[in-house]
Amino acid sequence: MPVPATPAAPVTLTAATAGGDRWSADLSTLDRDDVNVRRTAAGLRLRDARSAAGSPRSPHSAHAEGMLLTVPRTLRRPATRVTAEITAQVPAGATVEAHVRGWRGSGWTEWRAATAGAVFDRPVTRVQARVVLTARASGVTPTVRGVQLTADAVAAVSAATPGLTYRVYATRIGLVGEVTANGRTVQPRDHFAALPSRRGLSPLGSGDYTVRVCTTSGARCEYAPVWDVGPWNTRDDYWNPSAVRENWKNLPQGRPEAQAAYQSGYNGGRDQFGRTVLNPAGIDLADGTFWDGLRLTTNAWVDVAYLWTGGGPRGVVGDGPLNIRTGASTAYPTRGLAARFANVPIQCYVTGQSVAGPYRTTTRWNRLASGQYVSHAYISAVYGGTVPVC
Question: What is the pLDDT of residues 51-99, one digit of tens each?
Fold first, then answer.
C-alpha cells in the first residue's frame, strides 16, 4: 500500500518486544542484488526516476521502480508474523512498500507485504526484507529514511495447497539486453521465467522461486527460476487462493487476470495498468526456456508447477542449463532442461553412470519426477530433508 509522507527525522528503534525481535533494515549497503536505487544523505531514492511507456512485453516498466534487498536476519526465536514500519517522504504519484519472506526447513516462503503485518502459515527462523520504490510520473521519487521490522508469533493461517499446478498460456520474453525486475540483464537464449507478481520473484542469482514448465503433452519440461515480473500485471499471484491472492480475488484460483480479461472481458478487458489485454498470458518464458527447454515455436498453453508451494527435498542446480534424462545415464534421451540456480524437487536417487561435474564425481542420479533424472554432479546443495533411495 502507498506510504504517506512523514516528518524528516527517522525513528529510533527500541529494544525487542517481549517474545519477538525488533530491528532496523540496513538501507545503506547497496550491491548487485539491488535494482535502480541509490543512497543519498536524505535517504534511499530511485536512481533513475524516468518512467517508460509500459509495453505489453514489459509491464514492470510501466512506471519507474527500484528495489533494495536486505541481508537475511536470523531470529532469536521462530516467528509467524513480521510487521514493517516505514519512515519516508512519498510525493503524489509515488509509492513505497516493504516486503518480507521467511525461511523454514523446506525453503523460503513467498514475499508478503509487511506494512499491515505478514503472517506465515508455519514458524520461520530467518527473515529477509526488500524495499520497493515506484513512481508513475517521470522525475518523481520517494525518499525512504528508515524501515523498522518486528517479528513475533500469532496464530497460524492456512497456506496454499502444496504442489500447485495450472495450465496457463505462455509467451516468449525476448528483450535481450534489457533488465529484469530482479536486476538481471537478459542474455541471448536465456533460461528463466516471469510471473505477474513479485510474491514469487527470486533475488538475482538464485532460484528460490522456481517453476516447472511442461508442454501439455508432457514430452518436454524445464525447471526455471522466476527472475522477472509479468506478463501484463505485477500484482496477480493467481496460483494462490482468494484468501491469499493480492488482487482479483473473485477469479478462480489458477486463472490469471490477463486470461480472464482476454477471454471473457474481465475488468473491461484491461490489465491493472488500464491497457487492453492482447493475449491470455499467465507466464513469460525467456528465449532459452522457450526454444531449447520446451522446443516451442510459437506461444502456447503449458502446464506450470509453482514449486515453492510444495515440500520435501530440493536440489540447487549449480551449473546449467542441465540436461534432464529419461534414465540414469547420458545415453538416455533428454526430456528437457534444468536452468542454473533452479531449485528442483528430488523424489529419490538411483545409481547410474559415473559423471564428473563441477561439484563432484558421482554415480548418483536424482529423480525429479517420473522419467526425469539429473546427475548429482551438477547439484550444488540439497535442502529441505533427506533424499531417500528410489
Answer: 654 434 444 556 788 999 999 999 999 999 999 999 999 998 899 999 9
**Cβ 270 vs Cβ 276: under 8 Å:** yes
Contacts for 197 with CB less than 8 Å, ≥ 6 apart: 229, 233, 234, 235, 236, 237, 238, 246
> Is this structure's pTM higher than 0.90?
no
Superfamily of 165-199+209-301 according to CATH: RlpA-like domain (2.40.40.10)
Bridge-based pairing of strands 210-215 and 221-229 is antiparallel
CATH 2.60.120 domain position(s) in the chain: 21-152
Residue ranges, CATH 2.40.40.10, the chain: 165-199+209-301
- Assigned CATH topology for domain 21-152: Jelly Rolls (2.60.120)
Comparing CA positions, the residue from 118, 300, 273 lying closest to residue 196 is: 273
Task: Assess if CATH 1.25.40 describes domain 314-383.
Answer: no
Q: How many Å apart are CA 224 and CA 207, to the nearest integer?
A: 8
